[in-house]
Every structure is written in structure tokens, then in C-alpha cells.
């Protein structure tokens, strides 16, 4: 089934706005290609893509796994 999206240049002409019509997920990018790539990532995240982060991955983004109060590792995802 084809994917329906809307893609338009912002009023100020600075960014491209893109929205997946099925999921309602929306994002933006500096170019059309970048906006479409960002939408692919956002829709994948919406659909639960990714994997449970390792303690090392959490440390690399500045999160101390021992002090993590935002949720368990099972509640976190790092998206590929």
C-alpha cells in the first residue's frame, strides 16, 4: 500500500515540513531529502523500531545507568 505524505516548504522558506498522513507523525528538514529521511526515522520510532540501549550507549549520551530515574532500560529505546 502506498504511503501518503504531505511535504511543503515553510512560510519563511527555511525548512521543509513533512507529515505521514496515516500515523500523523510530522517532522522537518533543511532540504526535501533531509525532511524525508527524518520522517522515515520518526515513523520507525513511532512504530517501535530500535533496540534496548546498552549501559555503554546510555553513558555515551550522558546518562548514568545507575542514576537513571526516567525509567528502566526496558522503557528506553535508541533508534538505529
TrEMBL record:
Residue ranges, annotated region (Disordered): 48-80
Biased composition (Basic and acidic residues): 52-62
Top-level taxonomic group: Archaea
SUPFAM superfamilies (alphabetical): TTHA1013/TTHA0281-like
Signal peptide as annotated in the record: none
Protein name, entry field: Type II toxin-antitoxin system HicB family antitoxin
